[in-house]
Amino acid sequence: MVKATFIFGILGVLFLGCGPKETPKQVTFEFIGAVLDGDSTAIARYLDLDAMIAKRMKEMPPADTSQNPAELKAILMKNLTGDGGTRAFWRNQRIVVNQETIKGDSAQVEMTMIDQTTGSTEYSMIYLYRQNGRWRVYFYL
Q: For the chain, how big is the Rg over CA atoms in Å?
């Protein structure tokens, strides 16, 4: 009985280990879905807020860097949930996730956004990195 349990346990680990690998494109789909659902827990699972804030602070004019990272995180999460600007914008778009480009532990995923009201088209990009076998979003345009 112990032997059979051990064998089934090993087989279970092998099946889980051989499952489909997470791709940047899949993470992008999940991240967009989390934003559209306003699910802050799922957003945090796919988005590295610290990395995004660090990148945004580097790009800010010196006069605008007076906000601390905690305030910027709160603003970013507010934009991605509830009535936030990014969420409201994305909810009015037909979002098509296009090609992914992977270079080592970095990736980018192209997106096409088609406004459901006007039909205008915009192109965007989601940037990801791989850490401990998982892809995380660290920036989006």
A: 19
Question: Identity (one letter) of the amino acid at 71?
Answer: E
Structure tokens given for 27 = 């993470």
Number of CB atoms found within 10 A of residue 79's CB: 16
Tokens of 140: 């989006």
- CA pair distance 19, 15, nearest whole angstrom: 6
The CATH number that domain 22-140 falls under is 3.10.450.50
What tokens does 44 get?
Answer: 């945090």
Q: What is the pLDDT of residues 17-65, one digit of tens each?
A: 455 689 999 999 999 999 999 999 999 999 998 888 887 766 665 555 5
Domain spans, the chain: 22-140
- The answer to whether the beta carbons of residues 111 and 28 sit under 8 Å apart is yes
